[in-house]
Write a structure and sequence with these properties.
The protein is of the alpha/beta class and 336 residues long. It has helices spanning 27-38, 50-58, 66-72, 85-93, 109-112, 133-142, 160-171, 183-214, 219-228, 231-242, 253-263, 272-283, 286-296, 300-309, 314-324, and strands at 4-5, 19-23, 42-46, 63-64, 75-78, 102-105, 123-129, 148-154, 178-180. The protein binds NADPH dihydro-nicotinamide-adenine-dinucleotide phosphate.
Length: 336
């Protein structure tokens, strides 16, 4: 039976009089830092310099160099990119941690795959939002919260769970619910979504666009129909709210009949075997090893792939559709 925590499980007074040092002021750092401050907690930022430092200062935070912020922190939140975390941890975090402090991660990746081994004298906890940074802030402001995976990886002080739950409450996740999960499992599930579900879904999407394009339909109409009207995204939202089968009732009977009869033809798409392979590479640590090696050897493959993806025709298809519809692709006003 899984364990899920809500508002009543977290007590903010556990963090009263304590300083929370948010290391990194990017996607998660800004959102979580602001939420914790709005929850009445004492938050400082640790950053190495440049733009993010200025952004944090403009938002009214006291910003310190990373080692200094860690020395002040009773809770240290690791909100910098996972791939640079092990090096920063070894050089700037670990030597400056207070005894009995808590170190919090927003992802299980580094600890779960043994790239970081936090010292035994500190609590190691995780509050890992299932939400991108702007969503973490927006849903806090809206009063809805967002779901997370949480963990107590190591309890040095006897109060690691209380600290984790207080932090989770301050960040705003307990309003939606936080599910307890080992850090390694969080990392594996996250990688699988990125490496199997995402790409397989992308391939299905592209196949549909290509099929219609080859049949002579205008690309602007195809893109609007399949993706860019937002109808599909709305249906996904409804799937979450009422269920995959139940949401079919929101569609016409013509749509339902066609989908049920033709849908059967896609039942045996050969994706599961490939997904199992990807999962095996994740679970065995093969992917983590490969990614570490890539970083150490200068990221040539990564940079080539980034260049390559910019050449994909979907960039042009989206541009054309946006040009045809002046109401598409408008940016929302700046995150609150
Ligand atoms: P970002 O890429 O947004 O982090 C940017 C911050 O990291 C900036 O403050 C930047 O500082 C700092 N930084 C970058 N490189 C270095 C470095 N070499 N040394 C020191 N500081 C550096 O990270 P995210 O917010 O995306 O991710 C943070 C954590 O949250 C990760 O563990 C991630 O897995 C997790 N997470 C992220 C989600 C997301 O929405 N992106 C969702 C859920 C979890 P500077 O200004 O100096 O460059």
């Amino acid at each position: 039976m899984v364990e899920v925590f809500y508002e009543e499980h977290g007590d903010l007074s556990v963090l009263e009089g304590k300083t929370i040092a948010v290391i990194g002021y990017g996607n998660q750092g800004r959102a979580q830092g602001m939420n914790l401050r709005d929850s009445g907690l004492e938050v400082i930022i640790g950053n190495r310099g440049d733009d993010a430092r200025k952004a944090a200062e403009a938002d009214g935070f006291s910003v310190y160099d990373i080692p200094e912020a860690v020395k002040k922190g009773d809770v240290v939140m690791m909100l910098i990119p996972d791939e640079i975390m092990p090096e920063v941890f070894a050089k700037e975090i670990e030597p400056n941690l207070k005894k009995g402090a808590a170190i919090d991660f927003a992802s299980g990746y580094c600890v779960g795959f043994d790239l970081i081994e936090p010292p035994k004298g500190v609590d190691t906890i995780m509050v890992a939002p299932r939400m991108i940074g702007p969503g973490v802030r927006d849903s806090y402001v809206a009063g809805d919260g967002f779901p997370s995976f949480v963990a107590v990886h190591h309890d040095a002080t006897g109060s690691a769970k209380d600290v984790m739950l207080a932090l989770a409450k301050g960040v705003g996740t307990l309003k939606a619910g936080a599910l307890m999960l080992a850090m390694r499992m969080e990392a594996e599930l996250d990688l699988f979504t990125e490496q199997a579900f995402g790409p397989a879904f992308g391939r299905v999407l592209l196949s549909a666009i290509e099929t219609e394009l080859e049949a002579g339909y205008p690309i602007e109409a195809i893109m609007l129909e399949i993706l860019m009207s937002g109808e599909f995204a709305y249906s996904l939202k409804k799937i979450v709210e009422v269920g995959m089968i139940e949401q079919m009732n929101f569609h016409s009977q013509t749509s339902q009949y066609g989908s049920m009869t033709r849908g059967a033809r896609f039942m045996d798409l050969p994706v599961k075997e490939k997904m199992q392979q990807v999962l095996e590479e994740i679970r065995s640590g093969e992917f983590t090893k490969e990614w570490q090696q890539e970083k150490e050897s200068g990221m040539e493959k990564f940079n080539n792939l980034v260049k390559f993806r910019k050449l994909h025709p979907i960039n042009e298809w989206e541009k054309k559709t946006r040009a045809a519809f002046r109401t598409l692709g408008k940016r929302k006003k700046k995150d609150v």
